[in-house]
Amino acid sequence: MIDQDRFVQTRKLEWQQLDELLSREQSLHQLPAADISRAGSLYRAVCADLMRARSAGYETELVAHLDALAARAHNVFYGSRPVRLGALAGFIARRFPRTLRAHGRFFAVASALFVIPMVLALVATLVHPDFAPQILPQGVLDASANSYAEGLEGRESGTDATMAGFYVHNNVGIAFRCFATGILLGLGSVFFLVYNGIVIGTVIGWVIAQGHGHEILTFVCGHAPFELTAICIAGGAGLQMGYALVRTEGRTRLGSLRAQAPAVGTIIGGAALMLLVAAGIEAFWSPSSVEAPIKWLVAGILTVVVAAYLALAGRRGSA
Predict the structure, then answer these.
(1) 218-267 pLDDT, tens per residue?
(2) pTM reported for the whole predicted model
(3) What angle do CA 175, 115, 121 make, to 5 degrees?
(4) Rg (CA), the chain
(5) Backbone angles phi, psi at 26, to 5 degrees
(6) Distance separating alpha carbons of residues 207 and 126, to the nearest angstrom
(7) What angle (nearest 5°) sits at the alpha carbon of residue 300, between those of residues 200 and 226?
(8) Rounded to whole angstroms, how far apart are CA atoms 315 and 279?
(9) What angle in degrees, to the nearest 10, is found between the helix axes of 224-246 and 187-207?
(10) Is 81 left (phi over 0), alpha (psi -120 to 50) or beta?
(11) What is the largest CA-CA distance in the chain?
């Protein structure tokens, strides 16, 4: 075993080189390939030096220095990149809508699987109210009707904040099931899209049949453009995932899934952001005492904004 002074004298040049590479203003991934390769080699070497120093019982200061250097290098190589506002803005303005349009057929199918059952269930409940108890327990239906019996008088701010958390949990849960069950060759997504469409249509139809249609429609009109669209987007991502497992185009199923992962991840990320917006509207705006005509005007504007955003955003400029 060599003594500490000789060990430091032999190895300190490489420690300094690694420190210099880590201290550059440019991120490591922006450096020339030769520098990145050199940094990787120096990182592995300093890890070995750290273990040797600990095993040999060298001074605490030396071990701490090597430990800190190895930790810095590890964070550069393996740490997650920070979220930048510019990158987030680019994702919202260009990447998400472009990716969704590129795979729009899955969104279209998911929308049909969700909207058509919802409309049919709503009409069936209005025409034959006995239809509703066959879908949901009577207690659930009565509770839904009673919640709109007294109109929309607004809530205290603390209650709004609490409900925002609840709506995030509830909405994300619905969208997650529509998406994640797509791993079952897309059949899970089909089921949950149809199921949630029937449940939502039945509840709305029942409340309308009980004489509270104005209240429930005024409540849902504001957040529906974001929430219902996001559910369809999430369901479409699930269908896309299932389709990748069925039509592999010569790849293994895992390879086909990996090939679709970037697009699916982008789409489900955009849906999650839309659900957050919907939850905020549902908690703070939808139950407020603002007059119904204003709410309907805002709902119309939001519907146009969502449709225009998904159809037109990102058509110009670089990705």
Answers:
(1) 999 999 999 999 999 999 999 999 999 999 988 999 999 999 999 999 99
(2) 0.73
(3) 110
(4) 28
(5) -70, 145
(6) 9
(7) 50
(8) 28
(9) 160
(10) beta
(11) 91
